[in-house]
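User: Please fill in residues for this 88-position structure.
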């Protein structure tokens, strides 16, 4: 996938992750995109390590979107935990 595709997947996966997780949402559209992109990479890596499959195959593959959203949820929880500690 190209850079534009990664940004689009990141934006959508980050927005879905924010919608799926309760709590105060950090940042705006840029943070959402970054969380989604990092989440997509994390989800793809976890899919490869745990299940031995290539999770990030292409833009229109369901496995790409599932991996990106699951990874983005994990990254969002980690971000909220780190951000919550530093705010106090």
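Assistant: Residues filled in for all 88 positions:
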């Amino acid at each position: 996938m190209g850079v534009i595709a990664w940004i689009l997947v990141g934006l959508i996966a980050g927005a879905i992750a924010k919608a799926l997780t309760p709590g105060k949402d950090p940042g705006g559209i840029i943070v959402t995109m970054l969380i989604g992109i990092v989440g997509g990479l994390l989800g793809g890596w976890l899919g490869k390590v745990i299940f031995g499959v290539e999770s990030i195959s292409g833009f229109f593959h369901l496995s790409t979107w599932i991996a990106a959203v699951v990874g983005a949820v994990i990254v969002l929880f980690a971000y909220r935990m780190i951000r919550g500690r530093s705010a106090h």
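For context: The CA atoms of residues 4 and 40 lie 14 Å apart.
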